[in-house]
Amino acid sequence: MNDPTRLDLLRFLERVQEGDLARTRRWIAAEEQRQAERARGAAARPPEPDWLIEQGLTGRRAVYVHVGGCHMAGKRSAAASRGQARQALAAGVDACPHCRPDTALGVLE
Asked: Which residues face 94 on adjacent strands?
């Protein structure tokens, strides 16, 4: 049995590295596809509402008014117009203490 020559070993290394390079290129292509999908999703997302009204657990009574995009707005929040938000605050619905929609709307207690 002949021992592999230095050239044989270098050719083997070349094949291994070509396989590694091909795998890395597949990973890059997959990541580029994921980024493109995220960008398409972000572009298709509807604009954030200016105001939100958060309903209580039973869904019968509003508990908070939020500025759109408030990180404290719960899953039971629905988009509202400026007039609806002002009306809710005037009717006694609490303003979110974090985003202060009452200040933004000019409705101070």
From this structure: 64
Query: What is the pLDDT, as a whole number, of residue 109?
Result: 55
Residue 3: pLDDT band (50, 70, 90) is very high
pLDDT for 61-87, tens place per residue?
A: 889 999 998 999 988 999 999 999 999
C-alpha to C-alpha distance for 71 and 15, rounded to whole angstroms: 52
The rounded Cα 71 to chain-centroid distance in angstroms is 12
Which element (helix H / strand E) includes 62? strand 62-67
CB burial class (10 A; 0-12, 13-18, 19+) of residue 107? middle
Q: In sequence order, what are the beta bridge partners of 96?
A: none
- Beta strands 51-55 and 77-80 are antiparallel
| 28 alpha carbon, distance to own chain's centre | 23
